[in-house]
Specification:
The protein is α/β, with parallel strands linked by helices and about 400 residues long. It is built from 14 helices and 8 strands. An 8-stranded mixed beta sheet has the order 7-5-6-4-1-2-3-8, with helices on both faces.
C-alpha cells in the first residue's frame, strides 16, 4: 500500500468540482489501495480557491506562471510515494487513474503516460489517422499522446530535476519527457466519450518546449537540423537582398543590373558584400536565439567575431574543395556541381562544429537560477483565503 498525491494543475476556468475530486480519492483508496491520499491544486489562485469542495485540499498559488510551473510547484509540495498528475481539460474516468498507476508499478519506468485505448466505435480512417500520428509521436517525441493529461510519477529521481529548465510551454508531457529520466512508459486507458484533445493555440513557448525535447532526445543531430534550417533561411535573405541591391545600385551606378560586362564591378561587389554580411548577422541571431538558446552566455561581440571566423574558415575550405577535386578526380571534372556540393557539406560541418563547441559555449546545468519558478509555499485553502482577504 502506497501513499498517493493527486496533483491537479489549474488553468483558466476549467476546475474540477468537489464531487469529482471526492470520486478520484475514493477510487485511489478502494481500488489502488492507497494508504493515504492528498489532493494538491496548483495554478491560478482565484480559480483554485473557488473550486467547490476543495477546502480539504492543499493549494499552491502560482497565479500567472502557467501550467508547467503549476506542475513543478505541485511536485515540490507533494510528500507521498507516488504522484498522479491529472489535467482537468481531459475527460478521464476514475478507473483510468488506477490503470496508469498499475502500469507504472509493474514497470521500471520513472513515470507512466496515459494514452487512449483503441476506440472500436471510431471510423476506420480516423482510427488509421490516429494510429499514424501516434506512431510518428512515438518515434520523434517518445510517446503516442503528447497531449495526455494523466501521468503517474515516481518522484525520487524526477523531483531533483524540477529546476533544470525554465518553466515554459503548456504541455505537461513534453516538459516531463525533457527531464533527465531513465525511462517512461505509455499505458493504454479508457477515456470518457466526451474526451477531446485540448490542443489550444500554439505559442512561441510551446515551440521552445518542443525544441528542448527534440534536443534532449536527439542531441547534436537535432541542433544540426536546426542549424541547416537557419542556414537555408540565411540563403534566402542573401539572394533576396542581393537582387534588390542590384536593382537599387543600377539607378546610381553606370553599370546596369544584369550587365554582361566582365571584370571587377563595384556595384556587384558592394551588393554581394552587404548581402553576405546581412545574411551572416541573420544566421548568427537565429542560431543564438533558437539553435543554441541554452548557450547564450558570454560576450555577444566575442561570439559574433568567432562565428564570423568560423564561417570564413568554412567558405575557404568550400572554395578549396571546389578547385581541388576537379583537378585530381575525373568524376568531379565532369560534374563540377558535385564538387560544389561536397564543399558545401564540409563547410557546413565546419561551421556547425565551430558554433556548437567554440562560439556558443554551453552553460553548466542549473546555472542562472534554475527554472525561474515562483517561491515554494503550500497553503491549506482556508489559510490561503484568509491571506488573500488580508492582502485585499
Amino acid at each position: 500500500m502506497k501513499s498517493i498525491s493527486l496533483i491537479i494543475p489549474i488553468s483558466g476556468t476549467d476546475v474540477p468540482t468537489g464531487t469529482e475530486i471526492a470520486s478520484y480519492c475514493r477510487v485511489l483508496r478502494d481500488q489502488a489501495h492507497a494508504s493515504s491520499v492528498e489532493v494538491i491544486l496548483a495554478g491560478d489562485f482565484s480559480a483554485a480557491v473557488h473550486a467547490p469542495g476543495a477546502t480539504d485540499s492543499i493549494l499552491i498559488p502560482t497565479a500567472g506562471t502557467g501550467k508547467i510551473a503549476a506542475l513543478r510547484e505541485g511536485m515540490d509540495a507533494a510528500s507521498n510515494e507516488l504522484l498522479v498528475v491529472l489535467d482537468p481539460h481531459r475527460a478521464y474516468p476514475p478507473q483510468a487513474i488506477v490503470e496508469v498507476i498499475e502500469g507504472l508499478l509493474i514497470s521500471d519506468a520513472d513515470f507512466a503516460i496515459a494514452v487512449p485505448r483503441r476506440d472500436r466505435h471510431r471510423s476506420w480512417w480516423r482510427a488509421l489517422g490516429r494510429r499514424c500520428l501516434g506512431s510518428i509521436g512515438q518515434l520523434t517525441l517518445g510517446t503516442s499522446d503528447v497531449f495526455s493529461g494523466l501521468i503517474a510519477i515516481r518522484p525520487g529521481r524526477l523531483r531533483v530535476a524540477t529546476n533544470l529548465h525554465h518553466a515554459r510551454g503548456s504541455r505537461l508531457v513534453l516538459d516531463l519527457l525533457a527531464w533527465p529520466t531513465t525511462a517512461h512508459r505509455d499505458i493504454p486507458v479508457e477515456t470518457r466519450p466526451d474526451d477531446r484533445l485540448h490542443v489550444g493555440p500554439l505559442r512561441f513557448d510551446d515551440i521552445r518546449q518542443l525544441k528542448r525535447l527534440l534536443d534532449h532526445r536527439f542531441g547534436t543531430m537535432s541542433r544540426l537540423v536546426q542549424f541547416c534550417m537557419v542556414g537555408a533561411s540565411g540563403m534566402v535573405v542573401d539572394l533576396t537582398l542581393y537582387a534588390l541591391l542590384q536593382l537599387l545600385f543600377a539607378r546610381f551606378w553606370s553599370l546596369p543590373a544584369g550587365s554582361p560586362a566582365s571584370g571587377f564591378s563595384w556595384p556587384l561587389a558592394t551588393a554581394g558584400a552587404l548581402a553576405i554580411f546581412t545574411a551572416m548577422v541573420w544566421n548568427f541571431a537565429l542560431n543564438r536565439r533558437l539553435t543554441f538558446n541554452d548557450s547564450r552566455g558570454g560576450s555577444i561581440p566575442r561570439q559574433f567575431l568567432t562565428y564570423a571566423l568560423g564561417n570564413a574558415l568554412g567558405i575557404a575550405v568550400s572554395l578549396s574543395i571546389r578547385l581541388f577535386l576537379p583537378q585530381y578526380f575525373g568524376f568531379f571534372t565532369r560534374h563540377r556541381l558535385a564538387a560544389a556540393v561536397v564543399g558545401i557539406i564540409v563547410a557546413t560541418g565546419i561551421s556547425f562544429s565551430m558554433s556548437r563547441w567554440v562560439v556558443f559555449i554551453r552553460r553548466p546545468a542549473g546555472a542562472g537560477g534554475g527554472a525561474g519558478a515562483v517561491g515554494r509555499r503550500s497553503l491549506p485553502v482556508k489559510a490561503a483565503l484568509q491571506e488573500s482577504a488580508a492582502v485585499s
